[in-house]
Amino acid sequence: MRKRFLCLGMCVMVLGWCQAQEIQLGLHLKKGSHYKQLSRVNTTVDQEVMGQSMQVEANIVGSTDYLVSNIRDTLYDLTVQFDSLRMEMKMPQGGAHFSSENIAANDPMSKALASLKNAPFTIVLSQSGKVVDVTGTEQLFTGMMKSLDTLGAAQKAQLADQLKQAYGAQAMKGNLEMFLGIFPNKKVKAGDQWTTETNLSGAMDAHLVNTYQLSEVTADQYILKGNSTLGTDSTKERLANGIPMKFDLKGSMTSTIKIDKATGWISEGQFQQDLKGIAHISRNEKIPQDMSIPMTIKTISAVSGM
Prior knowledge:
Layout: H1 2-20, E1 34-49, E2 52-72, E3 75-91, E4 94-99, H2 108-116, E5 121-126, E6 131-135, H3 137-147, H4 153-167, H5 169-180, E7 193-200, E8 206-217, E9 221-232, E10 237-240, E11 243-260, E12 266-281, E13 291-305
Antiparallel strand pairs: 1-2, 1-13, 2-3, 3-4, 3-5, 5-6, 7-8, 8-9, 9-11, 10-11, 11-12, 12-13
Helix pairs in contact: 2-3, 3-4, 4-5
């Protein structure tokens, strides 16, 4: 009995030491190794247009491969390519489904997604998860334009602009940093908090201020809890289906992130964003008068890696 209590006491002491130990969180990738990331993003937009309520839902699923082609001090040169891409839209007037794996002759969007597959580009990533550079994405869209031989020049350009909002260099930088730019610049122990900042670019530009906490340390994972505030750049104009729009939205994001101890790569991540505000449309050739559209946007993202 005495030995049992002694062993139990030692286990408790070891567990307590592990929880209190200071850790330098960060990436520890190996040259020549592949790291996978599967992301699922569900976005629901509720808006009021000319007194009518309207809901639009989008689901985007993507599988991406990251090959560590070189390591330079604290920088990783990654050769990146999409393995598969899928989109689904639900709108009041109907729905649509597009996939890089299921190309129909009359489906230019799926054909465009297929052209983005297995076309490598380069990302330079720091050990702290910050994206230093993204190059080669323009070649993705050059190849895509060539593959859409049945479309006119204007339709090709519009489709390319839409996809650049999700898969262009700036969009890739912001999305990857949201998942990986989470590490502190100092050693931390369980219970400690730190702050990071992230810029997102896509259909709209947003700035996030993130507070993370190392909530738990297990045998093979670090578990982080995050709370963020975010707001869009209301001065920047974006094209949505050829219509210039400015977004004035504010909101929050919560996250739970599980990090593999050995590599620093995310093994699992859950994110929820809630935004509310107004989209402003200036009078143009398609819209004869200025419009302000109240809207709320809810985005739930899930990421898994290996």
